[in-house]
Amino acid sequence: MKLTHLYATELSEAVTQIHPDVPGDLQLQLVNSSHAQELALPDKWWQDNLLGRQLAEKDFALCRQAVAQKYGGHQFGHWNPMLGDGRGLLLGEVENRANQRIDLHLKGAGQTPYSRQGDGRAVLRSTLREYIGSEALFHLGIPTSRSLCLFDSQEMVLRETPETAAMMIRTAPSHIRFGHFEYYYHAGDSAALKRLFEHAFIHHFPEALSEKNPHQALLKAIVLRTARMIALWQAYGFVHGVMNTDNMSVHGITFDFGPYAFMDNFVSNAVFNHTDHQGRYAFDQQPGVALWNLNALAQAFSEYCDTEQIKQTLMLFEPAFISAYQQTMVNRLGFSDVDNTSLDLVNRFLTMLANQQRDYHQHFRTLSAMDPTQAQCDLRDEFVDRDAFDTWWQDYRAHRQDEGNTDAQAALMDSVNPVVIARTHHLQRATDAARQGDYSIAAELIEALKTPFDDKWADTVWANAPVDDVQVSLSCSS
């Protein structure tokens, strides 16, 4: 393993070096073995809690140059320059087996200069949710940070109630956020902003350097990647919960998991963050918020791109988002082509789910098993307004047959409609068991989420929707 510290070295004014503050009883509980192998990390780390013990050692190479990053961000639309890694440390970068540089980031590592009166800890509840949630997204094909390992302890920390502390190591191409660029722009520090751009070009977006205007090319790449990520969030019913610009990655990956949730019943304006009283980050607001955030980021490019260049680049978001979203949604109904009929069928199906409070995920998956050559469909029994479903079904089966090859359509649907989703009640069950020292439930859920489209999970508890359909409210505390 070759550990580098390029971000900390090249942008030294943007970091503070700190050694992790590790609970004395830190215990390794979960390891993402396949990801560890991809990163060519030492096997011995995962044996006999070795890594848990070494994180506390002053001379351990992984912690020797750990740093907290400084950045700003728009939080619920308001600029805040006083942000940074308040509980996390960038340990450094390693190369994976594909020769790609990947960040290792330790979350829950203690206080930093950016903790803002916080204790620098992460609690088991939020840490386990992030660990499972990021892997769930990854295996659905949604761009995301990854989970490497999770540790727990019996150290108590106070949130709404006392909870036990935990730590995790997550990975990402980098931890550069929209808020990094915003911070130097709003501070008027052109020299530091220039160094940040140079770092991003050299290490993460080298292809932009061959373009006529590299900065516009970089902004374009961020816009398009963000559009694709948001399209997949919308297609799979994912609600991030806290889309502040400091929680947005320039790589277009899902980042900083807080009060996130996958919807159960389809509710277009679903909000799960109990502090989001105005619904700013509701499910149906996410595309608009993403574009708002990109506009905030784009201000940092104004020294290198004129107003028209920035405007034209930002205008790429909407068509890119719509294209990716529509293609995924028509695929979920078994159609290859995006046309008016397919889109109408998607919209009508979503309307039925919303109006009749039906489960978003199960009904898409069940539909893939229905025979479009049959005049009647058993799925109708799931709806109160069966006449509306029958009318939709006749139009749907006609269009399926117009496209032909129903076997291929069914296979397509099975490949994009998951059997297993990281539903909130599954996460709660895993958390409740972990609090008692039992990580077998979490491990079983993670195993199912690795192959979410596989029918082998259909008769397991992991395919089940919650018994009661009350929309939960999740804490933003972590």
TrEMBL record:
- Cofactor(s) for this UniProt protein: Mg(2+); Mn(2+)
In this chain, Mg(2+) is annotated as bound at: 247, 256
Q: Show the InterPro entries listed in the entry.
A: SelO
Residues the entry annotates as binding ATP: 84, 86-87, 107, 119-120, 170, 177, 256
MF-aspect GO terms: AMPylase activity; ATP binding; magnesium ion binding; manganese ion binding
Question: Which family, according to the similarity comment?
Answer: Belongs to the SELO family.
Reply yes or no: does the keyword Cell inner membrane apply. Answer: no
Q: What is this protein called?
A: Protein nucleotidyltransferase YdiU
What role does this protein play?
Nucleotidyltransferase involved in the post-translational modification of proteins. It can catalyze the addition of adenosine monophosphate (AMP) or uridine monophosphate (UMP) to a protein, resulting in modifications known as AMPylation and UMPylation.
User: Which NCBIfam families does its entry note?
Assistant: PRK00029.1
Pfam families the UniProt entry points to:
SelO
EC number of this enzyme: 2.7.7.-, 2.7.7.108
- In its UniProt entry, the species of origin is given as Salinimonas iocasae
- Which leading EC class covers this enzyme? transferase
Under catalytic activity, the entry for this protein gives: L-threonyl-[protein] + ATP = 3-O-(5'-adenylyl)-L-threonyl-[protein] + diphosphate; L-tyrosyl-[protein] + UTP = O-(5'-uridylyl)-L-tyrosyl-[protein] + diphosphate; L-seryl-[protein] + ATP = 3-O-(5'-adenylyl)-L-seryl-[protein] + diphosphate; L-tyrosyl-[protein] + ATP = O-(5'-adenylyl)-L-tyrosyl-[protein] + diphosphate
User: Active-site positions, per UniProt?
Assistant: 246
Task: Recite the UniProt keywords alphabetically.
Answer: ATP-binding, Magnesium, Manganese, Metal-binding, Nucleotide-binding, Nucleotidyltransferase, Transferase
